[in-house]
Amino acid sequence: MEAIFGRGSRKSSLLEENENEIDDETENPVREDAEDEDLEVADDDDDDEDDSDSDSSFDDHPRTWENPIPWEQPVVKNAKPPHPLTVTHVNQTRDLMKLQSAEAMMNAELQNSEEWLKLHSVEYMKLTLKDLVDRGKIGNMKPDHRTGKALQHIQFEAYDVNEFEYKLNMAIEMYTKRIKWLLQGSKRIFGNIRGKRIAVVVDISDANAGFGRLTAFQESLVHLIDEQLAQRQSIYLMSFGTDIDPLWPVARDVNCRIVEEAKEWVMRMKPSGGCNLLKALKHVLKVQDVDSVMIILGSVPDQTSEILCDYVHQLGIGQGIPLQTVAYDCSNHLTNLTLRSLSEVSHGSYHCYTANCEDQIYTGTDISLILKEIQKAQEVINKIKEMRDGMMGSALVSIMNEITTEVAKLPQSRFLPRPPGHDLPLKIEVPKFQARSSIEWIKQHGLKARRLDLYQILAPNAYSYKEEFIPVIKKAVQSQVHEATMVQFQWHDGSVKNIHVDMSLLFEYQKQLYSTVRLYEKRIEWLASGSRRIFGTIVEKNVVILIDLSISNVNYLVHIQHSLRLLMEQQLANKEYFNMIAFGSEAVTFKPTMVKPTPANLQEAWSWVLDLQCGGSRNFLSAFKLAVENEEEIKHKIFSDGIYLFSSGVPDQTQDICCSYIEQSTSGRGIHLHSILFNVDDYDAEGAIPGRYANITRTAECLRNMAHCSKGRFHWFRETGIIESDDIQHITTEIDKAMNFSKKVQLLVESVKKKYRNRYQHDIMEEMAALPAPPRFRRKALPPTASTTPPATYRQQRTEVKEERAKILSKRPTSASYLRDSQIAGRDRPNSARDPMSRVKSSKRFATTSFFLDTKQKMGDGTGSVIKKYPDQKSVRKAVGQPHIPDVEDIVSTKEWLRLYSLSKLKLDLDKLVSGPDCKHNEGTVKTLHKHVSAKYCDIFPSINVKGTIKHLQLLPHELKEYEAQVEKVLKRYLKRLQWLLSGSRRVFGTILHKKVVILVDTSGSMEQYMNELKKELAALIWDQLYRLGARFNLIRFSGDCEKWKQRLEPATQENCHSAVSWSSRFTASGNTCTLDALRMAFDDPDITAVYMLTDGKPDTSTSMVLKEVSEMNVDRKIPINTISFNCSDSTANNFLHLMAQETSGRYHRCQTDFDAQLFAHKLLTEGFEDTEYPHLPEFEGDDLRRLGSEINTARKYLAQSRQYRSLYQSKVSQSEKPASNKGNVTPFVVGKPKTTVQ
Fold it and tell me: Which end of the chain is more exposed for a tag (fewer CB within 10 A), N or C?
């Protein structure tokens, strides 16, 4: 608790000296003053009694001991006790202040950050820059040789500076732990609740409790009640939508029954219309016995922010009830602004939670205050670094190096908090068996190895469906025994088997599956214990450990050392050889070659680990080369089998270079690289710090690819537990397979029970129809075989042609080529001179082989030919395509992306699939019968209406089902693409496709309310797209005037990106909108290939003039202008931006704020596509989103049509089961057309 919530009540020596001085000086005067005060108080009491006697209305009952004044019971309900610090004695006051500090530390869980920082801030702990300067000694002034002015000279003791820096690092660690504590449990979602009597107001509007959000919202509220509200004195619960719904009329004291009622109330919640927050505030602010109100909002309120803030300000005057506002998983910035304003007006707190963007959590009041303290402490540490360089501002600084050399010899871990017994020798445990990877373990204990595969169990009693033609009776005979005694079951290859079900065998199989799953769970528990939780399993006999000691891990050096200690104690003792290599900018080895893991060598390795220090970058390849290219080990024929990389970030080298070298050096040698990613948490004033060079997601992807390219394993963990592990993933896959088999067994048993229950339920046994046989395809007849010997007429004609050709060629020179001339002659002919029917004539040719005849014939040329291959008969029916869309998102426009992956390109256009030439429905009039007669086979296939033409549906039900599966697969990929387009900076700016771009940003006066949001989104654009794309870019701000960031395009390096973000953070909204001047400034750069312009309205000048000027400037250069509408609802302005993008071959994008398309995609991905109409996809206006949305709607339409077509077959089956007497002339059944019978 002390490590999380603060230090103990230790005081510095300076504070103790000051206290002793105050005690000596004030001991006697305080006693005299106390006596004087007692006399004065007594006199004042006498005067008060006289005045009260003279003014008393009780004349008949004078105030005497015999006749006292009647006692009146005082009102003590919710009364505050007198403050103990009103005691005037100095020593008692100090004791009470110490007691108050101790109580505050004990009650840290009930305090918000503002209250907690009163005793843990940098100022309270005297760790500010002023406190550091006070420790220095002013020396002699030295003149500045450049200016001639005197410079101040301050001297510091090295011990004081190091101690001060150590305390600052401890304070930062304490703040970090406080932040981690605030991000645990329900505090991550709802923040840390303050107050003892809480009123909770919950938003259950349709926007917050709909779209599949209600279940997760209820679970979060139940967690809040169990963890925080159950610890309070009294609570009051109320939900609101269009109307309010309180659980109790008054606040109730918390007990077990009240907590259970609250949970039941939460589980009964249902969506309730709009979001009438004003009505809820009017009710809850009138509730008695409440000292704090918590508002949980997940949608935009019906009232504006100004109305709500004015009401809270006017009604809250004199009450002092703070509002704790919580934005629950809402991406609309208006909700966040409203709740933040309400908390500021009522002097409360604000908390924001989003499931997709973790950075939003750090904008809450509690965490942001602690981040500011971290920034203050970090600034002081930076000043200390400047002091070591000899300057601090304009003053010269010198640190006395009396013990500096001794301190420099100490390792970096000396100044970091260490666990107990960190420096003690190792306690080595020799493993009793050689560990194996999960892949090798499953080969012995997997379902197939234990003969628990369901198909292995059912195979002896499984029989295929049979249908054969019997020549004697001239009929096709089908197997029918399965209808009475068997159950049909779909096999793993898609076929249908008839199964004899042995109930006792399946019961025993279920028991075996249960015990096997328990074994797998124990394996997972074993993999998540001890050092295996950090490193995974060390399975090879000769291992090398690569340790990342870059400068970014300096604060986690003790964590790295402790992890290595566990590894050496638990997993290395039974290996044959081992070695360790630490790397930063340079690599350092424990031993020149691998050594045996004897106790002495392991203890020596632990001493070597304790002396390690962090520094430099992450030069991975230098360490890896030492591990795989050790000449001494090659001489002694000692080869490493496994290399374990323990790192927190990506290497200095690119991923392609690392993976290529790993593949070349490990292929054929049996070496595997296993990567372990330890996820560390760092914080600054802006929130979480990502790993070096990349965020944690890209870091994990890089290390995962490095491990898998050498057939190694990837392991990812953090302080809270394992995030990803290949070993655990293989075990969970087997568990899922076992659960799937168990469900199939349950369905099989239910089928048997249903079959026999239906049989014995009726007196007369009815024939039970079995499932339809699996689909069969008829083989098409081959074309008739031609004669192998050409006829005589054909041989004679061939001989005559050859003789004429020989005469012609005899007159040509030997160097001429007949084939070349024939090709040239054909090429010189115009297209109009060719045969117009050549395209529709059959191009099928027989493949023949010629040979010479042994016997000399009287006629012919002595050659023969044999037909080797007949042309394939082209099927008229079109097969359902098997599409494949890569999971990696291509950085292209939606138009280009759909050219490759649209439904038409993937051969999933349903209209084309059912529109073959032999599917057309024909009807005609028979004159002799005087009737309108349909085609002969109309009653075999259902008829449908395809674009106004009646077609016969020849796709069978199983083909339609396969088509629906493929469309659902493609539809999921479309939705993931939609989520990608709406994530990150692409939500506002769209996708940046070009590598030489200029970004125009509108900073006119109308952008004032969106300026903070614009700065954040612009910073996200620079890092998320420009930096990753490796583009060259420039920024131009325009309002009343225009301003460039740089004079030319600059590459998106880290330095330039930081500079661009810093420049954009100084934007202020003012002035007009000079769009034309900004475009002219952008076109002045000759290197640009595209322009991206963000604005929220029309330009100041005429829109037609802007379009004309742009077209004139862009005549020769053809530069696309991509326009971005930012929070603009003016249709005229949006039409102007759309037209400009269209005329310049650019793209138009609009940032949508009135709906959340992410929720739409998430709902469809989680709930499936059973309902093809709801939820409705909102209409997008941007080009990329609009095209993709149109394709999604088309896919959903085809899905609905396919299901409707399948239902036609069911109607056909039900129609065929009717008695024959009721059958008449049947007209084709058409979708959307009612059936009619012929009278």
Answer: C
DSSP 117-172: TTTTSTTTTT-SHHHHHHTSEE---EE-TTT--EE-EEEEEHHHHHHHHHHHHHHH
For residue 1026, the 8-state DSSP code is I
Residue found under tokens 């209600």: 214
How many Å apart are CA 136 and CA 383, to the nearest integer? Answer: 14
The pLDDT, as a whole number, for residue 226 is: 87
Q: How far apart are CA 562 and CA 533, in angstroms?
A: 13
What is the distance between the alpha carbons of residues 1130 and 1137, in angstroms, rounded to a whole number?
A: 11
Please name the helix (run of DSSP H) or strand (run of DSSP E) that holds residue 841, with its range, or none: none
**Distance between CA 523 and CA 863 in Å, rounded?**
75
Give yes or no for a contact between 997 and 1035, defined as CB atoms under 8 angstroms apart.
no
What's residue 1073's pLDDT? Answer: 87
pLDDT less than 50: residues of the chain: 1-65, 148, 394, 400-410, 682-692, 759-795, 797-798, 801, 805, 807-843, 854-858, 1220-1239
> pTM of whole model > 0.85?
no
Least Cα distance to 904 among 831, 972, 970, 982 occurs for 970
Q: DSSP alpha helices (H): ranges in 995-1120?
A: 1011-1021, 1027-1029, 1054-1064, 1075-1083, 1103-1113
Phi-psi region of 593 (alpha: psi -120 to 50; beta: other; left: phi over 0): beta
Q: What is the model's pLDDT at position 1059?
A: 92
Listed residue (229, 367, 220) closest to 294, CA to CA: 229
**Residue 268, C-beta contacts closer than 8 angstroms, at least 6 positions apart:** none
Given this model, what pLDDT does residue 1230 score?
44
Rounded to whole angstroms, the Cα distance separating 396 from 386 reads 10
How far is residue 755's CA from residue 242's CA, in Å, rounded to a whole number? Answer: 52
Contacts of 846 (CB under 8 A, 6+ apart): 786, 867, 869, 870, 871
Rounded-to-integer distance, Cα 1152 and Cα 1166, Å: 23
For residues 1216 and 1202, what is the distance between their CA atoms, to the nearest angstrom?
22
Max CA separation in the chain (angstroms): 165
> What are the phi and psi torsion angles at 460 (to 5°)?
-60, -25
How many Cα neighbours within 13 Å face the side chain of 752? 16
CA distance 855 to 838: 40
Q: Could you tell me the two tokens for 505?
A: 């065998």
Give the torsion through C-alpha atoms of 508, 513, 518, 523, to 10 deg. Answer: 140
* Cβ neighbours for 351, distance < 8 A, ≥ 6 positions apart: 190, 191, 324, 325, 326, 327, 364, 365, 366
Structure confidence at residue 82 (pLDDT): 63
Separation of CA 454 from chain center: 36
Interatomic CA distance for residues 737 and 516, integer angstroms: 11
* pLDDT at residue 607, as a whole number: 92
State how far the Cα of 578 lies from the Cα of 38, in Å rounded to an integer. 81
> What contacts 286, CB < 8 A, 6 or more positions away?
none
Phi-psi label, residue 809: left if phi above 0, alpha if psi -120 to 50, beta otherwise? alpha
What tokens were used for 918? Answer: 């032999």
What is the rounded distance in angstroms from the CA atom of residue 370 to the CA atom of residue 340? Answer: 18
So what's the pLDDT on residue 1098? Answer: 78
Residue 759 zone, left/alpha/beta (φ > 0; ψ -120 to 50; rest): alpha
Helices first, then strands: H and E counts in the chain: 41, 40
Q: For residues 1190 and 296, give the distance between their C-alpha atoms in angstroms, rounded to a whole number.
A: 36
